[in-house]
Amino acid sequence: MKKINLFLTLFAFILFTSCDEDTNDVSVDFSQTDMLSNYADNLIVPAFKNYSTSTASLYTATESFTSAPDADKLSGLKENLIEVYENWAKVNAYQYGYAVDINLQTNTNSFPTQRDDIDAKIEAGDFNIESISSYNIKGLPAVDYLLNSDTDEAILLEFTEDENRGTYLLTVVKQLNDNAVATYDAWDNGYAAEFASNEGNDPSSSLSYIVNEYNKAYERCKNQRVGYALGKNSISGNSSPMSVESYYNQETLNLLKINVASLQEIFNGKDGLGLADYLDAYYKAGSIEEDLASKINAQFELIKDKLDECSDPFSDHIEAKDATVESLYDEMQKLVVMIKSEMSSALSVKITYQDSDGD
């Protein structure tokens, strides 16, 4: 009798599990291929093209400045840097393909930068930035420090009197540009087509890449650009204003707004099919009970409203830990559950990375 009961229990468990796994096995009127093609052709490739074009301009301007520093060149170089930062905000969610091979994210924008280590390498004439421990002494944050950490007069004097400083800056910018151009070339010369044809929802599918890297990019936006500086992940809970992105040129708020707007655009697929449309198809088919696409977009709008309440320099909000930035962080936190848990579940995509955020 015990064996019969055990058999019935196991049978019921298997039946329940099978039904649960088939929850999203619903026929929907949606073309995953069209969505992937839209992402590749209309969002990712153009974004990397713009980014690589801006890094090329930055490199050309850096060559000119370091060969003969003057005030006009420095001013132009700073403008070039802002353009690169803004274009980076529109590609940092696309960390798959060749970008993974070269660790594009960590090589490009690991902040806060280690200014003392940069100065030590410049003094020693050490221009090697290829080691695994070099992430915080190169990339955009290092350029920001070298160009914006003092008055223009002081910066000019440093580059005029110390040739090593110019060599270090040029080395950093060259790596930025080389990586940007190589990543764009990879997408433009075959990977876009490969990406668009890689259907399914298993961990090696393009849909999985999009969903996972999208979530990573959003959590970087919430944590690295706001939460960590607020002390949300530290034992002391103390704020760290210098830990924000683009601290020295005070473009933090501008870049945060661009990051959020870009992430919402990616969610909606810009002018074509995107994750929002995929969720809407499941909603209309009855696979999910909630209009999750509208819910996520509404939360994005709340976050953008909170950003509009902030002012420059954003680091002042962080230092004060005022109600404005605390409210912003709270609204950003709410979106994590929607995209990381609810969206991934609705699309039957497994989150394949781990973090220590406690979401």
From TrEMBL:
Signal peptide: none annotated. Residues 44-325 form the Imelysin-like domain. Transmembrane segments: none annotated. It is found in: Cell envelope. GO terms for cellular component: cell envelope. PROSITE patterns: PROKAR_LIPOPROTEIN. Pfam families: Peptidase_M75 (PF09375). Keywords: Signal. It comes from Flammeovirga agarivorans. This is Imelysin family protein.
